[in-house]
Amino acid sequence: MFCNQDPQPKMNNLHQQRRTRNPWRRSENFRVRGGFSLIEIMVVVVIIALLAGLVGVSVSGYTDRARKTKAKADLSVIAGHIKSYYGDHGRYPDPSEGLAALVPDYMDQVVQDPWGGDYQYEYPGTEGEFDVICFGADGREGGEGKDADLTNWSAPGTPGSSDNP
User: Fold this and answer.
1) Which residue has the higher pLDDT, 48 or 35?
2) What is the DSSP letter of 151?
3) I want to staple 130 with a disulfide (CB 3.0 to 4.6 A). Which of 15, 80, 84, 125 is the partner?
4) 93 cis-preceded (ω within 30 degrees of 0)
5) What is the DSSP string of 88-110?
6) Rounded to a whole number, what is the largest CA-CA distance in the chain?
7) All structural domains of the chain
């Protein structure tokens, strides 16, 4: 070998570029960017909104059913308290007293229905000895679906209902 030559031959410029080139880059002019574009973020937000809408629609049906079930349970409990009142006093509460006659001996307080309205007490009742009525979601007499009225005599097996004298 010659004295003034390097033991390893020098690589040409093209060979060095290929050797040090990032394999994940498409070309040398391609700029690496960080983060997400506005379009990508908008697509994700739209997908999340659609999923939230589907969940909201399906949950609302369960909420209405749960409120109706709670109202039926409340009617049954209130009817039981009225029967206990009758057993202790030999008479049903006077309509002017209403459900307040059951406080504090039978109930801690007069409860409201799941939609925030008051339960109505009527004596004598239409179908049974007395009526306890929940007017449903609309708070008015009548209605269908979630607005339908619930009574102690429309829920089978409740004290004071027509099927349970």
Assistant:
1) 48
2) E
3) 125
4) no
5) HHSSPPPTTTGGGGGTTTT-SSP
6) 128
7) 39-151 (3.30.700.10)
Smallest CA-to-CA distance from 92 within 73, 104, 79, 105 is with: 79
- Residue 69 CB neighbours (<10 A): 11
- What is d(CA 12, CA 71) in angstroms, rounded to the nearest whole number? 86
What does the block give as tokens for 12?
């040409």
The whole-angstrom separation of Cα 119 and Cα 109 is 12
Task: Label residues 103-114 b or e (16+ Cβ within 10 Å = b).
Answer: eeebeeeeeebb
Token representation of residue 147 = 């607005």
Q: Is 49 helix (H, G, I), strand (E, B) or coil?
A: helix
So what's the pLDDT on residue 3? 58
DSSP character at residue 33: -
| Pairwise CA distance, residues 18 & 109, whole Å | 83
In terms of Cβ atoms closer than 10 Å to its own Cβ (0-12, 13-18, 19+), residue 36 is exposed
Q: Which two tokens stand for residue 134?
A: 């929940």
Asked if 135 and 117 touch (Cβ cutoff 8 Å), the reply is yes
Residue 10 has pLDDT above 60, yes or no: no
Token couple for 41: 């973020």
Which band of pLDDT confidence, cut at 50, 70 and 90, is reported for residue 24? low
